[in-house]
Structures
1.
Amino acid sequence: MTDSGSGHKKWYFVIGGAIAAFVAFLNSVFDLGDHIFGDGGTDVASSASAAPGTPTPPGTGVVSALPDQPAESTDPVPAGTVARRSETATAASQVGRSGPAWYDLTAYEAVSFGNGHTSVASITIGTTSFPNSIRGYYQSSASDPNDRRTWLTAGACDRLSVWVGKDAASSGTGGTGHFSVQAEGAEVAGADATLTDPPRHLDVDISGVSRLTLLDTKASRDANNAWGSPKVHCTAPPGKAR
């Protein structure tokens, strides 16, 4: 004769085992789905923690810095201060700011001048053309300084950059020209040149100079003199704009 209590217990074990197997099956299905489709929250968190400039895998939604665009510095900044942006990032903000700059001398009025200095759009020395230049074409000497011009730099400039030589388009072919850079009327730099000489660059310290003069000398039949692209580096323009 079968014990009814024992039969009931057997059924309980069978049903319980079936339920446990079904739950295990559901868990395996969910795990398989996570493996196939991934956990979006975990990927985003790991991507966001990547260091600036570190390449990241495609599809993560994070754009890495380009090779020619360095990422911003992540150095810690003391409380109450603003982190300094990189020079490339702030280049556009420099437009319109005051400060030292290079000025074309020919764009500004002189306070004193002789008969033989004229500004030209360009001039050629040897085989090189220079824009915004000066031609010295009149007979000129130290005692009769016709080819000259003086600008009021007022101590605001620190460098003069200019190329000197003979004007390749001159009708005359001879002579040696002397090029004199003067501060307050005294020569601080000079050079000589003939028509066969290549252009020579003069880079002159003019710090604190109030009156800057460019003077060149030549005989009447000599080839004309050329000042190629004279520029001054100043904190203010070297006079009134022409």
2.
Amino acid sequence: MNLKDRIIRSTGKKAPFRLVLVDITNTMNEIGAKHGAQSYSLKLLAETAISSIFLSSSLKMKGTVSVTATFGGEISYAKADTSPLISRKEGDESYYFVRAMIPQDDLEAIKGDEPALIPQTYQVVKLNEYGKRVHESMVQAVSASMGQNLATYLYQSEQILSAVGIEAQFNKQDPNKLDYAVGFYVEAFPEMEEKDSTILEQVVLNLPKFADMYATQQSGGKTMLDELLYQFEGPYEIEVIKEFGAKAFCPCNKERTISSLAALPINDLKDLEKEGKDLELVCDFCRTKYTVTIDDLKNLIKEREK
């Protein structure tokens, strides 16, 4: 597959574990540009999205995983939703749809500065294909690192032993772009023997630094994901189950935007109608602007009054 971004799902042949590798650099640069995110906020967006991808990689159904990390300090929260689209036709490409956001007021306040962050919570919500919540859990966030928060969540909420590495690095010359947004996730299955668990732990501890793998990639060597795959293949054979691409995607549209107004009290809707002005609403995720006209408001009020 010739994909700009890659998500590799694989398993160990000689030991029972699952390995997921992610590179969504291009997708997060596209999402970051829509939000005007830069440097540290762009890094946080990407790392939150990668943690959501790792969780959605284990979905046993069609659906979406939403991750929200809340903070005290200059950023209130970061949120990412991912949905795997698995093609069943030979030759067709499969993708993870990704969207992510930090409140726009927070982004405008910090601009390119490093924000002061006090980790508070890490929340995971799993939705089925119809948008119904099938799982929701929250743990105390242990750091600003999404990898550490994800590992803590998995251990406390799902009793899964895992090793997680997530890192995004912004470009020093152009902080509006990421050099890379990469991660690995290793899940040991319950039947794994202690000797294999010890070996796997050493493999993780001895992995090259992400920055060193990026430098190798830039000099014409292995890509970061290929290097990670090579490192895990050292003591084990790895079987790649499927490789995916990634796409920035948001399911918002004008109809859904108008529907969101229906949650307002009817008196508030009537006050908006009296003002006689069209409303401009902006999607928090993709920053698409929608105009809700007075006629739209009138129709909405009529529906409510029925």
